[in-house]
Amino acid sequence: MNRRRAITAIAGAGLTGGSALVLGGAGPFGDGDGLPVRVEGIDAPGSADGPVRVPRSGRPTLVDCFATWCAPCDQQMQTLTELYPEYEDRIAFVSVTNERVGGGLSAEDVADWWERHEGRWPVAVDPESAVMSAIGADGLPYLAMADASGVVRWRHSGVASGERLRSAFEAVLEG
After folding, report:
1. Mean pLDDT for the chain?
2. How do beta strands 123-125 and 92-97 pair?
3. Separation between Cα atoms, residue 112 and residue 108, nearest integer Å
4. pLDDT greater than 90 at residue 23
5. How far apart are CA 52 and CA 34, in angstroms?
6. pLDDT the model gives residue 34
7. CB distance 41 to 52 below 8 Å
8. Whole-model pTM?
9. CA 43, 44, 47, 53: dihedral to nearest 10 degrees?
10. CATH homologous superfamily for the domain 33-174
């Protein structure tokens, strides 16, 4: 393995909380790798305490990986909250943070962030970064779309525009 690839892998693992250290082979980008994953929901608008399945059963699902400290995640949430009413009957949304609750961050802090950003769908914590690892996330924000059978059909690293999201939504809905 070359030095650049090793440094990139280590940096990516640090950014995502150690979610996936892939140093060889095709990496974690195979469709549906590691899905479904169960994470812990947060009591917040549109969300409840308890287990949350990612992706949601039987319908296309947008998976949004975010962090409360991430400024681009704030921007992504604005776009997601604008699109949610248009797609909520056809696509399940779920947002997941890999931040650790306890110490400096509480579940209430995540719920407050969620409410300030007008989230209205399930939000969950995943301190082991199982979701990020399963979908091959390489940073934040990171989005993935799974079809109704749970196969990941689209991924995006960084902030996605409303137009790009609509295109991904429609492609997955059309099958």
Report:
1. 86
2. parallel
3. 6
4. no
5. 15
6. 80
7. yes
8. 0.82
9. -60
10. Glutaredoxin (3.40.30.10)
* Locus of tokens 């940073």: 139
Instruction: Pull the structure tokens for residue 59.
Output: 């319908």
First to last CA, the chain: 38
Q: What is the DSSP string of 71-136?
A: HHHHHHHHHHHHHHHHHTTT-EEEEEE-PPPBTTB-HHHHHHHHHHTT--S-EEE-TT-HHHHHHT
On whether the CB atoms of residues 64 and 94 are closer than 8 A, the answer is yes
Give the tens place of pLDDT for each residue, 96-153: 999 999 989 999 999 999 999 999 999 999 999 999 999 999 999 999 999 999 999 9
Which residue shows structure tokens 């949304």? 93
Percentages of the chain per state (helix, strand, coil), in multiples of 5: 35, 25, 45
Sorted by where each begins, the domain ranges of the chain are: 33-174
Closest alpha carbon to 171 in 76, 30, 82, 62: 62
| Residue 126 token pair | 């995943």
Q: Does residue 4 surpass a pLDDT of 50?
A: no
Residues present in the chain in total: 175
Tokens of residue 136, six digits: 């091959």
Kindly tell me the sign of the dihedral angle through the C-alpha atoms of 52, 80, 44, 46. Answer: negative
Q: CB neighbours (10 Å) of residue 146?
A: 28
Q: How many CB atoms lie within 10 A of CB 136?
A: 20
